[in-house]
Amino acid sequence: MLAVLRCDAGPDVGHGHLGRCLALAEAAGERGVRCRFVGRFDAAAHTRIARAGAERVEASAATGSAEDAAATAACARGAALLVVDGYRFDASWLDRVAPARTGVPLLVVDDFARLPRHPDDAVVVNFGVRAAALAYAGERVTVLRGPRWFLARRALRATRRGRRPPAEPPRRVLLSIGGYDPHGLAARVARALAQHADLEVRIVCGTPPAGAEALAAAAPGRVRLEVGLDGLAESLAWADACVTGGGLTKYEAAYAGVPVAALAQTEDQALENAACAAHGLCVDLGFGPAVDDGALGRRLAGFLADPARRAALRAASRASFAADSTGAVLDAVLGRSRAAAGVGS
């Protein structure tokens, strides 16, 4: 059996789409399914895909073009599943890879429900807290909504199972804004955290943020810089608290039981962070470009000084996420396709 996963990863789009697809690829591998990634990938993504034991096909056509859809459909011919994750794939593109045209079950990861429709018989997953309020149009479309369907990688699932109780007050803080940081938020947060002399700070990033190396050199033993985004499970196991952007990492931290504060890079992320905070899954630090350094420092200090709030975050996380949410997504899609084919009926 083969699963094909269409996504891109690089400085222009970050690594969030790839991370979610890697989670599905690992769960598929545990079920004996071979995986093939198709897309435009940077060198770091090449490494991550290889480490997952998956095949890789570099897309030659422009992402979202008709040629791209045709090439994706060709790569998925005869597969047990096609996964599509990216904001550049419109309704017309999805129609070209729809189950009715390819005979391949389709899983679409869609955070925002901005498309006018999804193909007939597609399965859509949105593990975000705002998913319940969004309308996904299309005939016979199944939507898996909310954190119980979170796409957690294998190592993160193990971290959740073996999670140690965090230190109180926090001693170790993970800072990971992500692979996309156009506003230099990582360096700003790092400077604010470095003011707390009792903290160890681990900065995990795709490329070193401006000034981060100098900061680490100025605070030896307290600030550590790690370049590479092949999963945060070990760093989350280490951390007592986490500061991140508005993307996938805040869900990873919450799933692992690590209290998390999120600083948005985009307006969409600002809305998402506010919703997560309303559900008790994170502390919302605001829209990064609009928060000055003084306010940022005060908000971080408040997060670090409030044990009751961090305990409430951990409790909300335990209640919100299923232990094997990734496997549940994959089983729902493959089980639905088997039922449609009359297998086991």
Keywords:
345 residues; alpha/beta; Rossmann fold; 2 domains; 7-stranded parallel β-sheet; 6-stranded parallel β-sheet; 14 helices; 13 strands; 18% strand; disordered C terminus
List the helices and strands and how they pair.
Blueprint: E1 2-6, H1 16-30, E2 34-39, H2 43-51, E3 55-58, H3 66-75, E4 81-85, H4 91-96, H5 99-102, E5 106-109, E6 123-126, E7 142-145, H6 154-161, E8 172-176, H7 185-194, E9 200-205, H8 212-218, E10 223-227, H9 233-238, E11 241-244, H10 248-256, E12 260-264, H11 267-278, E13 283-287, H12 293-304, H13 307-320, H14 325-340
Helix pairs in contact: 1-14, 7-12
Write up what this structure looks like:
- Residues 339-345 have low confidence and may be disordered.
- With 345 residues, this protein is of the alpha/beta class.
- The chain is globular, with a radius of gyration of 20 Å.
- It is built from 14 helices and 13 strands.
- The protein has 2 domains: 2-152 and 323-340, Rossmann fold (3-Layer(aba) Sandwich), CATH 3.40.50; 157-320, 3-Layer(aba) Sandwich (Rossmann fold), CATH 3.40.50.2000.
- Helix 2 (43-51) links the parallel strand 2 and strand 3 (55-58).
- It has helices at 16-30, 43-51, 66-75, 91-96, 99-102, 154-161, 185-194, 212-218, 233-238, 248-256, 267-278, 293-304, 307-320, 325-340, and strands at residues 2-6, 34-39, 55-58, 81-85, 106-109, 123-126, 142-145, 172-176, 200-205, 223-227, 241-244, 260-264, 283-287.
- The strands form 2 sheets. The chain has a 7-stranded parallel beta sheet, with helices on one face.
- The two termini are 20 Å apart.
